[in-house]
Amino acid sequence: MLYCLASGPIFLQRIEDEANVVDVMTANEENEINTLDVSEFGYYFCTAGKDRNIRIYDWEKFKPFSVLGPLTEGDYIGPPEDTLTQHGKRIFSVKFSNDSPYHLVSGGWDNSVKVWDLRTNQVVKSMSTASTVGPKLCGDALAINGDLCVTGSLLPENAIELWSIKEGRRIAVLPYESPQLRGEYVLVVKFCGDSHVIAGSATCHDAQIISITQEKVVSRIDGFRRSVSALAVSNAGKVAVAGGAPYISFVETMTSPFFLET
After folding, report:
1. 3-state secondary structure string, 150-164?
2. 157 and 169 in contact (C-beta within 8 Å)?
3. Using CA atoms, how far apart are residues 256 and 234, in angstroms rounded to an integer?
4. Which of 148, 150, 189, 236 has the maximal Cβ count within 10 Å?
């Protein structure tokens, strides 16, 4: 199991049983880590967070062999056009492409999503421009499925956007039903197979399954008392897990949810 803490440590552990958890490797970044992802194509993983850098780690040495991002610390202050080649504020989500071993996508608080080329360590596309505001991520609100990228923004409306990675443009805005005018404020989003996405909200206290082709909500997971901040979906897209205090909800997509209180 690979996991990290917001304070900087990263752990690789072998879980043999409940009573035997072995630290295989550990590392420590002087950084507030917000996100971690593992490549499907090789023995490496990446982290990103407060300092706006993306670090690519080697599994064997458990040390970063490449760093993507700015040379300066803190939020970027300078010409707007320079934010096309780097993130201006902290990064909240980064995902390796499942379609190419050479690319990853990142997003954060600076209203932009970047597509990086690992061969050059450079941004090759920015899903925003100096004059066009992109998605404002504040959680694990970025997912990739081939050429498609879905993002969720901490905004009251038009929070879920579907993008073409190759073209670097938005191709659709997906709905999120907000009861009692609470606003959408999406914290997390995932693909459910090829035809649906699932998203969790900070204010609606639910998760909703949305049809991409029909562009409408087809199912809802209710019952959370607070924000839904974590989602996981099986490889086949048939089973989803939503997390939000004090519940973890297991749901077979398109059916009624089953709640476990934590």
Report:
1. EEECCCCCCCEEEEE
2. no
3. 17
4. 189
Cα torsion for 75, 131, 107, 83, to the nearest 10°?
-40
Residue type, 25: M
Average pLDDT of each block of 10 consecutive residues along the chain (262 residues)?
88 76 77 93 91 91 87 55 73 95 93 92 78 81 96 94 91 91 93 93 92 93 86 84 70 53 44
Q: Helix or strand or coil: residue 71?
A: coil
Specify the DSSP class assigned to residue 4. E
d(CA 33, CA 91): 9
DSSP secondary structure code for residue 125 in this structure:
E
Q: What are phi and psi of 132, to 5 degrees?
A: -120, 125
Distance of CA 165 to the CA centre of its chain: 15
How far apart are alpha carbons 182 and 202 in whole angstroms? 10
